[in-house]
């Protein structure tokens, strides 16, 4: 492989000089505090996943096109996260490289959720009437939602890169740091989904109910007020623990990202040069990106339609028609809370599992488990469809319990998805001269391209087979099973236990 700009001997010497020694390692308790940012980010994501797909349909967006609203997430991830990662690698602020972007992202999240929560009120002030379709509210919602996805990408990428900075070349500590982040994402999920499943927030914040904002809308608005408090708290805990040095003061024994000394060809990769980086990726990195892409083709239909699936196909309700749909959405949020509990427990044992079985094997088995869960959801949908309960009748308890068990079990592969790919890409891109911010952006491209495909295709695909969410889940099951086989057969079975150049 031709390595750009920098010779092998220069790069190896530079890497050796920047490996953290036991004397200058950042304590794990400080890394733990930095990782707490994942809790605040995921709290907001959990609210999005549990409440926003039903909410956009209440605003009048048809189910077939609801997935297009989510298209900004992958598009912003494709454009924003690599760019922000590149900029944070080279940021010379006196506050450090990553922290300015984390703060800017947190402030943007606050602005975005205020717009989303008040979108119905904004639409009413601009002339929307009390009708099924609220075009001005939809415009305000979409603008706020897209800003929220940009802000989430602006925050999460630098935070992941900061963890990589603090752990250096130590693969074990890198896995631990990513497991911490995954654990905090689980905690954020638990709190977020618990918030989304509670229907009485409007009683605590009665001012949220207005002539334009119904009780369901007021619950969402109130939940986002809690999100604002949470993101500000975790941002403070995270950035106060980081203690970054300005880039200009980083010496030869500083963090694992050797910013200005890194290869100019790879580090100068601005947006229009980003794809040039892929020429220098090794075979193992390409396999990691392939497995990541297939994994997210599997995940995205579930994350997009999980609570909607519970409301439509298990409780047989429709948005704006009776209470069955909303009862299903709340039950789906409860299932996602159980999912997050399992996610957190799995994150605690992640390092031990990887040390014993190898990251590639653990990742592959978890993806096959994810595929089986999606097949089980298809079976439950078929059974529920052929059972006679309609209108105000509730589904049999056994159907609801089976659905909740599947939601909970899916926490295992989700914990792996949130942890292992980031640890593997971090330890395998360092010798290419990529800063950790840009490395996270490269991995994110493998995440967002499948999301664009699913966002564009899932609605029309579902309609092609008569509506519902089952067709998209079927595609997710096939993709998840395929990614599991590739991970087991092609990825390394074990990690090295000591820092070294590993490509």
UniProtKB/TrEMBL annotation:
<dbReference type="Pfam" id="PF13347">
    <property type="entry name" value="MFS_2"/>
</dbReference>
<feature type="transmembrane region" description="Helical">
    <location>
        <begin position="432"/>
        <end position="453"/>
    </location>
</feature>
<dbReference type="GO" id="GO:0005985">
    <property type="term" value="P:sucrose metabolic process"/>
</dbReference>
<feature type="transmembrane region" description="Helical">
    <location>
        <begin position="396"/>
        <end position="420"/>
    </location>
</feature>
<feature type="transmembrane region" description="Helical">
    <location>
        <begin position="31"/>
        <end position="51"/>
    </location>
</feature>
<feature type="transmembrane region" description="Helical">
    <location>
        <begin position="473"/>
        <end position="491"/>
    </location>
</feature>
<feature type="transmembrane region" description="Helical">
    <location>
        <begin position="101"/>
        <end position="117"/>
    </location>
</feature>
<comment type="similarity">
    <text>Belongs to the glycoside-pentoside-hexuronide (GPH) cation symporter transporter (TC 2.A.2.4) family.</text>
</comment>
<feature type="compositionally biased region" description="Polar residues">
    <location>
        <begin position="10"/>
        <end position="21"/>
    </location>
</feature>
<dbReference type="GO" id="GO:0005773">
    <property type="term" value="C:vacuole"/>
</dbReference>
<keyword id="KW-0769">Symport</keyword>
<dbReference type="InterPro" id="IPR036259">
    <property type="entry name" value="MFS_trans_sf"/>
</dbReference>
<feature type="transmembrane region" description="Helical">
    <location>
        <begin position="222"/>
        <end position="242"/>
    </location>
</feature>
<feature type="transmembrane region" description="Helical">
    <location>
        <begin position="361"/>
        <end position="384"/>
    </location>
</feature>
<keyword id="KW-1133">Transmembrane helix</keyword>
<feature type="transmembrane region" description="Helical">
    <location>
        <begin position="137"/>
        <end position="155"/>
    </location>
</feature>
<feature type="transmembrane region" description="Helical">
    <location>
        <begin position="325"/>
        <end position="349"/>
    </location>
</feature>
<keyword id="KW-0762">Sugar transport</keyword>
<dbReference type="GO" id="GO:0005886">
    <property type="term" value="C:plasma membrane"/>
</dbReference>
<keyword id="KW-0813">Transport</keyword>
<dbReference type="GO" id="GO:0008506">
    <property type="term" value="F:sucrose:proton symporter activity"/>
</dbReference>
<feature type="transmembrane region" description="Helical">
    <location>
        <begin position="176"/>
        <end position="202"/>
    </location>
</feature>
<feature type="region of interest" description="Disordered">
    <location>
        <begin position="1"/>
        <end position="21"/>
    </location>
</feature>
<feature type="transmembrane region" description="Helical">
    <location>
        <begin position="63"/>
        <end position="80"/>
    </location>
</feature>
<dbReference type="InterPro" id="IPR005989">
    <property type="entry name" value="Suc_symporter_pln"/>
</dbReference>
<feature type="transmembrane region" description="Helical">
    <location>
        <begin position="285"/>
        <end position="305"/>
    </location>
</feature>
<keyword id="KW-0472">Membrane</keyword>
<keyword id="KW-0812">Transmembrane</keyword>
<comment type="pathway">
    <text>Glycan biosynthesis; sucrose metabolism.</text>
</comment>
<protein>
    <recommendedName>
        <fullName>Sucrose/H+ symporter</fullName>
    </recommendedName>
</protein>
């Amino acid at each position: 492989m031709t390595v750009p700009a920098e010779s092998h001997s220069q790069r190896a010497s530079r890497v050796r000089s920047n490996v953290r020694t036991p004397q200058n390692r950042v304590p794990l308790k400080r890394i733990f505090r930095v990782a707490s940012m994942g809790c605040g980010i995921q709290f907001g994501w959990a609210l999005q996943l549990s409440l926003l797909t039903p909410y956009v349909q209440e605003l009048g967006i048809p189910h077939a096109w609801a997935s297009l609203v989510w298209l900004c997430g992958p598009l912003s991830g494709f454009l924003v996260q690599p760019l922000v990662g590149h900029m944070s690698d080279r940021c010379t602020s006196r506050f450090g490289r990553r922290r300015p972007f984390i703060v800017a992202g947190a402030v943007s999240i606050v602005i975005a959720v205020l717009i989303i929560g008040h979108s119905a009120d904004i639409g009413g002030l601009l002339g929307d009437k009390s009708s099924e379709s609220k075009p001005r509210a939809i415009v305000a919602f979409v603008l706020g939602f897209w800003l929220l996805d940009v802000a989430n990408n602006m925050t999460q990428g630098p935070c992941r890169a900061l963890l990589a900075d603090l752990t250096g070349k130590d693969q074990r500590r890198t896995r631990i740091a990513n497991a911490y982040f995954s654990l905090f994402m689980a905690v954020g999920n638990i709190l977020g989904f618990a918030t989304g499943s509670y229907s009485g927030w409007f009683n605590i914040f009665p001012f949220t109910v207005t002539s334009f904002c119904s009780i369901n809308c007021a619950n969402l608005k109130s939940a986002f007020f809690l999100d604002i408090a949470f993101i500000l708290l975790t941002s403070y805990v995270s950035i106060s623990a980081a203690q970054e040095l300005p880039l200009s003061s980083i010496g030869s024994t500083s963090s694992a990202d050797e910013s200005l000394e890194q290869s100019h060809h790879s580090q100068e990769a601005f947006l229009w040069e980003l794809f040039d980086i892929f020429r220098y990726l090794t075979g193992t990195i390409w396999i990691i990106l392939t497995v990541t892409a297939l994994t997210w083709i599997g995940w995205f239909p579930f994350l997009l339609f999980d609570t909607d699936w519970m409301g439509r196909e298990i409780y047989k309700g429709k948005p704006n028609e009776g209470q069955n749909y909303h009862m299903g959405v709340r039950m789906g949020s409860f299932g996602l809370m159980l999912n997050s509990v399992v996610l957190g427990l799995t994150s605690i044992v992640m390092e031990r599992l990887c040390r014993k079985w190898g990251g590639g094997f653990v990742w592959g088995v978890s993806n096959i488990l994810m595929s089986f869960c999606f097949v089980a959801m298809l079976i439950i949908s078929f059974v529920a469809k052929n059972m006679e309960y309609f209108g105000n009748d509730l589904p049999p308890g056994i159907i609801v319990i089976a659905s909740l068990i599947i939601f909970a079990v899916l926490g295992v592969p989700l914990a792996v998805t949130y942890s292992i790919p980031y640890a593997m890409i971090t330890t395998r891109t360092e010798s290419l001269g990529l800063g950790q911010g840009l490395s996270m952006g490269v991995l994110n491209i493998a995440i967002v391209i499948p999301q664009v495909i699913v966002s564009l295709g899932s609605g029309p695909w579902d309609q092609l087979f008569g509506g519902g969410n089952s067709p998209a889940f079927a595609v997710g099951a096939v993709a998840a099973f395929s990614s599991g086989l590739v991970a087991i057969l092609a990825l390394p079975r074990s990690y090295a236990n000591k820092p070294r150049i590993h490509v």
